[in-house]
What does this fold into?
Amino acid sequence: MFALTPFEIGAIELSLKVAGLALLGCLPMGLLVAWVLVRCDFYGKSLLNGFIHLPLVLPPVVVGYLLLVLFGKQGALGRWLWATFEVSIAFSWKGAAVAAGIMAFPLMVRSVRLSLELVDTGLEDAARTLGASPKWVFITVTLPLILPGLLTGTILTFARCLGEFGATITFVSNIPGETQTLPLALYSLTQAPDGDLGALRLVVISVVISLAALIASESLSRRINNRLR
Amino acid sequence: MQKKLYINIDIKRKKDNFMLSAKIQTKGGLTVFFGRSGSGKTTLIDLISGLDTPDSGTITIGDQVLFDAESRINVAPEKRNIGYVFQEGRLFPHLNVKSNLLYARRFINTALDPVMFKTIINLLGLEHLLNRRPSTLSGGEKQRVAIGRALLAEPQLLLMDEPLASLDSERKAEILPFIENLRDHLKTPILYVSHAMDEVIRLADTMVLLDQGSVIAQGEVGDLMSRLDLRPMTGRYDAGAVLSVQITAHDTEYGLTELSFSDHKLMIPHIDLPIGAHLRVRIRARDVSLSTSKPIQTSILNVFEAKIIEISPDGSSQSEILLDMGSPLIARITRKSIVELNMKVGDTIYAMVKAAAIDRHSLGFGGTRVRHTN
It folds into this structure.
């Protein structure tokens, strides 16, 4: 029987929690940044674009280390967070979510951007002549039209967050029950002398979760595309 | 009844190397903005809709100021209550036809009058399309839905940007009657952009001629069409005088229809309309020939006695001659004939119009609004 152990359930729950929170941050931010990159023209646009894509090309350890320097107890942002909100994200699951979110952010921006570039602004103009304010144009025309891109971005981001390792272990360490997500738990097992079976079980779990997410997104995007055809 | 809604436009807009400077006044009905591509027609209605902003000037509809550069008034497009039918339809692909039609209702507080909905659906022949997706519609159907969508917003003014340009002639013939219906049955004034003279003849009450960003002339279609100085603008080969006529008889034996206008009769090939119907007829200048003596034995059915009003000072081999026969008529003949027949302004002459030359494209229906110029 393939009954999950409490250790495995804990890792799965934590992973979903971390990826979920990261996604929650990436969605609105990704929409905003993609919109700015597609629709606005300003000085330093390519710099912003490059900066956003950095996590895609930098070694994850670098990102994790930078986060540690910034958000650690002694870091500039970490001290400020502690002083104003009495919150510290270093070595907590929230920090893991921040690390995962930053690593996955370029994927979200890229997907949304691609579909936003395909939206005919003429349709948005038409909506305005029909009485829709810019806010309503976005809600009733732009958003439905970029839904496929948004969905792809969501799946990619979620998957990337589930698999995040390097930045996470550098920034928030590998604390069971707090920051030990699936990949980190798997890593720990591979380091243990008798962890082979446990590691194999986590591999199967990872494959099942990822596959389920992919299949769900595939069927959802097919349904959306049918509506848009 | 036509509501008299005066539209006053006096604006300037510079765009790259193009300068639009327009001063226009219309008073309801259907006004065509006519000109070649690049003459600024679309820019002009974009400015009226609010999708583009003038550099200076004013736009008012009735007593409502939509734009005034000096007092910094610029009403947002969604608050102007102006319907816009675009060249390419621009239906929302993620909504079905019914949702497209009702899109504007989300932003209107009053409930939709079901009678009005039915009227517009019937007028545009949309009832069997309501559940379809825009991607499954033909070009003509899309354009009809786009018109319905704009009308169901209950606009105070309807803008149409070459709504027929992307359609083949069959689809065009399918939509034209719908637009004529709108003109005759709705009180909403329409500004209609076009570069096709047959659309002007069929649809327009008044016309604004645009060229390279400037207004060349504006006024009643019949008046502008009989001005020789506007020939280069109104189309050298395809244009001609426009007459407002009434069907007075059908000759079933020879398959002809008799049209009457200012004490004259014009015979044309049979058209399937009841006696008494009002029509607009364009008589192309190239289909009119002239004779200094009354032709007796000729195959041409329509001979009119007329006076020469103006001979266009044209350096080419052909000239246009403006005639008065109670209504204006334009003839296009060679300069050689003018000299050989010794034609002068003030002469009385016989104009011959070939019946077979008048085809469907020369006819406009319900055109009772073109007044005679005498």
Residues 366-374 of chain B have pLDDT under 50 and may be disordered. The first helix of chain B runs from residue 41 to 49. Chain B has ten helices and 21 strands. Residues 290 and 351 of chain B are 5 Å apart (CA to CA).
